[in-house]
Design goal:
Distance between the termini: 14 Å
Number of strands: 17
Order of helices and strands: HEHEHEHEEHHEEEEEEEEEEEEH
Structural class: alpha+beta
Strand content: 25-35%
Radius of gyration: 26 Å
Low-confidence stretches: 10-26, 291-318
Mean pLDDT: 83
Length: 343
């Protein structure tokens, strides 16, 4: 019996250690969340409505609503749906709701969606219609905007669905070796990857700044071909090992010309700036207080190496360690209890 229980304990330990990897590998699985149809939500809110022309089908404009039980703004919104939308637009929309007060899993979905969209709204209801969002008290102005959004989405050739977009695409790309992170405003295919090459290129015209690093950045498709991502605002975050009073970032365009990037920011050890395409970037730093000669050998920022995109493993490693410790405690405790019971 003891030997069997030890085997079970070991299997639990292995499953605990591997669990973060399994969860991380999964795409967005909407089946694990508890959604509600409009009829179910109206019943919960004790609201009646005419569903004669209403159908819960994909050809309608989908309205996603994250709501809370007991939320007065939520109840007022659904009353508006029953009194106005069902009367005038019943054949053009459908509503899918997620209750977030009593269902923490649904609340994590809300946070994922808001992170993907780039919003931090905490007020309910949180409403998504195509690429439009609304939250809080739905006054007459917002009602008019909601109706316009329903008509625009219903009449569009490709009805944008944020949850479908999240299942098939992503906005965040990481390179673990360099620590570089980029986020695109419009989502790109999950099959794409970020390639970073440390070029160590320098601009001979810049003499009063220390050269920190130079990186050539590209997005690759599934076949490792370079993909152009024009007309898509990109936020780039580059870690800097040594802080300076002033920074300069130079972009090398396709013709080899140097163009200084404006509106760069240094925050929490990172240089942050925005661009519309990925090119080669030269990073420089300067201290006002002292007259330093250019340092061409900044630690950990030089050399010619090619790094490929990998998942961001920092959070995963912490989870692995935590889960391993929990699994170890379970295994040791079960062994001790079995021995104690036998004695």
């Amino acid at each position: 019996m003891t030997k069997k229980m030890r085997i079970v304990g070991l299997m639990l330990l292995m499953a605990t250690f591997l669990l973060p990897t399994i969860v991380k590998a999964q795409d967005l699985d909407l089946t694990i969340y508890s959604d509600e149809t409009l009829q179910e939500t109206l019943t919960e809110e004790n609201i009646t409505g005419d569903f004669t022309n209403y159908q819960d089908t994909d050809d309608r404009a989908t309205i996603y609503v994250f709501r809370q039980d007991g939320c007065l703004n939520c109840k007022n919104f659904y009353q508006y749906v029953a009194d106005t939308l069902l009367v005038n637009y019943a054949d053009k929309f459908r509503v899918i709701s997620y209750e977030v007060r009593n269902n923490q899993l649904n609340n994590t979905l809300r946070m994922k969606v808001q992170d993907f969209i780039g919003e931090e709204a905490t007020i309910t209801p949180y409403i998504i219609i195509g690429e439009k969002t609304f939250s809080g008290f739905i006054d007459a102005e917002k009602q008019s905007q909601i109706e316009d959004a329903i008509l625009a989405l219903y009449n569009s050739a490709n009805k944008y669905d944020v949850l479908e977009d999240m299942k098939n695409n992503k906005k965040d790309f990481n390179d673990v070796s360099s620590g570089i992170f980029i986020r695109t405003e419009k989502a790109l295919s999950k099959d794409y990857s970020l390639r970073i090459i440390n070029t160590n290129t320098k601009d001979s015209t810049i003499t009063d700044f220390n050269h920190i690093a130079s990186y050539d950045m590209k997005i690759l498709d599934k076949q490792n071909n370079i993909t152009q991502i024009n007309n898509n605002k990109i936020t780039i975050r580059i870690p800097i090992a040594q802080s300076y009073d002033l920074y300069k970032v130079v972009e090398i365009d396709n013709n080899g010309n140097s163009i200084e990037i404006n509106n760069i920011e240094y925050k929490d050890g990172y240089i942050i700036f925005e661009t519309n395409d990925l090119k080669e970037y030269l990073i420089y730093g300067k201290n006002n207080a002292t007259d330093q000669a250019p340092n061409e050998n900044t630690p950990d920022q030089t050399g010619n190496q090619v790094t490929e995109n990998n998942p961001n493993t920092l959070d995963n490693v912490q989870i692995y360690v935590l889960m391993f410790l929990v699994g170890s405690i379970i295994f040791v405790s079960s062994t001790y209890l079995l021995k104690h019971k036998k004695n």
